[in-house]
Amino acid sequence: MAKIELKKLSKTFGDVDVIRAVDLTINAGEFMVFVGPSGCGKSTLLRLICGLEDITSGELLFDDVSMNDKVPSERGIAMVFQSYALYPHMSVYKNMAFGLKLANFSNKEMQARVLEAAKMLQIDHLLDRLPKQLSGGQRQRVAIGRAIVRDPRVFLFDEPLSNLDASLRVDTRLEIAKLHHKMKDATMVYVTHDQVEAMTLADRICVLRDGNIEQVGTPEELYHSPKSLFVAGFIGSPKMNFITGDIADQHQCHTLGIRPEHLLIDAEKGVWKGKVIHTENLGSDFFVYLDMGTGEPLVVRLDGQERIPLDTQVHVRPLPARLHRFDVNGLPITPTINQTGENL
Ligand SMILES: Nc1ncnc2c1ncn2[C@@H]1O[C@H](COP(=O)(O)OP(=O)(O)OP(=O)(O)O)[C@@H](O)[C@H]1O
C-alpha cells in the first residue's frame, strides 16, 4: 500500500506541455480514476507514475520517497494495459508466474501465489491453456492475475476493458471492483473513457483537461456539485443539458444546466415548451429529444415503459433543486445544490 503524491508534476514533449504542474495526492488503498477528453494527458500521467516516461519537472513520491529517478521495476507497481500483452507461446500458468520466476521465487511460492490469484479471478481451470485458447475477457483476467501475483504496492490500469465486448466489460468491471474490495491495501490508478467505469469503480475521480486537473472528488461530488461547466458536461451520460439565452437570463445566469433525469414531461403544463424531434429506447430508459427553439435539443429521460410519439408538443418542468447555474466563465453560481439535491 502506498500513498502517491504528485507535486507540480510536468511533462513536455518537444515544446508541447502535456502535463502542467499537476498537484495530486492519491491516498494509500484508494481507487483513483483519471478521466478527460482524448489527448488531455491521462495516459501520460499514468506513465509518469509508472516510470515509462521521464518527469520533465516536479516530484513524484510513493510514501514520501521520491520515485523520480527510480526505474519501473524499483517502484513496486504492476500495470495492466488495454492490449493484454501476454506471451502467446506460454500457458496461462507460465504467463502469470513469469515475473515471479524472474524474481527468483521458489516453485512452491510461485504455485501458491498463481493459484490464489487464479482462484480470485475464477481462471484456475484455465491454467494449462495458451492465450489464443481464451476469450478476450479471460485474457484480461490473466493479465490482471499476472499483476496480482507480484503483490504490488500500486496497480496501474490503462483502459483495461476497452478491447472487450459490452457484456464482458460489465463482468470484468465487476471483477476489478471485487479485486479492489479484497485487496484493500492496494492503491489503484485507472484510466478510462468510460463514464460507467469511472462512476462505479472510483473512490475518487480526477477530471483532466489539457494537462491540468479540472476537479478531483468522489463520483457523487462530481455528478452533483461540478465545479465548472466543463466537469458538468463531461461527467454523466447522456450529458447534462445546457441552456443559454432567454431561459438562462430568467434564472440570472449565463448557462443553465439540468440533467436529463431531472426533467419532467407534462402534456398540459410546465415552464418550458418543446416538440419531440427524436427518441431513443434503451429498454430501461426512454430518451426524448425536444426542440425548444434554443439551438441544442433538450434531452429528457423517461422510464423505459413510457412512450411519446415524434412531433408531439410537450411541456417540460425542471426539478428546481437540480438546476445548475453557471456564469459566463463557466463557474457555478451559488446557491448550488448539495448531494441530496437540496439548495445550499
Ligand atoms: N511520445 C510522445 N511524443 C509526443 N507527443 C506525445 C507523446 N505521447 C503523447 N503525446 C501527446 O500528449 C498528449 C496527451 O496524450 P495522452 O496519450 O496522455 O492523452 P490521453 O488523455 O491518454 O488520450 P486518449 O484518451 O486519446 O488516450 C497528446 O496530445 C499526445 O499527442
From TrEMBL:
InterPro entries (alphabetical): AAA+_ATPase (IPR003593), ABC_transporter-like_ATP-bd (IPR003439), ABC_transporter-like_CS (IPR017871), ABC_transpr_MalK-like (IPR015855), ABC_transpr_MalK/UgpC-like (IPR047641), Mo/tungstate-bd_C_term_dom (IPR008995), NA-bd_OB-fold (IPR012340), P-loop_NTPase (IPR027417)
PROSITE patterns, per the entry: ABC_TRANSPORTER_1, ABC_TRANSPORTER_2
UniProt keywords, alphabetically: ATP-binding, Nucleotide-binding, Sugar transport, Transport
Gene Ontology cellular-component terms listed: ATP-binding cassette (ABC) transporter complex, substrate-binding subunit-containing; maltose transport complex
Taxonomy, superkingdom: Bacteria
Domain called ABC transporter: residue spans: 4-235
GO molecular-function terms, A-Z: ABC-type maltose transporter activity; ATP binding; ATP hydrolysis activity
Gene3D superfamilies: 2.40.50.100, Nucleic acid-binding proteins (2.40.50.140), P-loop containing nucleotide triphosphate hydrolases (3.40.50.300)
The keyword ATP-binding is assigned to this record: yes
The keyword ATP-binding appears for this protein: yes
PANTHER family assigned to the protein according to its UniProt record, in alphabetical order: MALTODEXTRIN IMPORT ATP-BINDING PROTEIN MSMX, MALTOSE_MALTODEXTRIN IMPORT ATP-BINDING PROTEIN MALK
Protein name listed in UniProt: ABC transporter ATP-binding protein
Species name: Marinomonas profundi
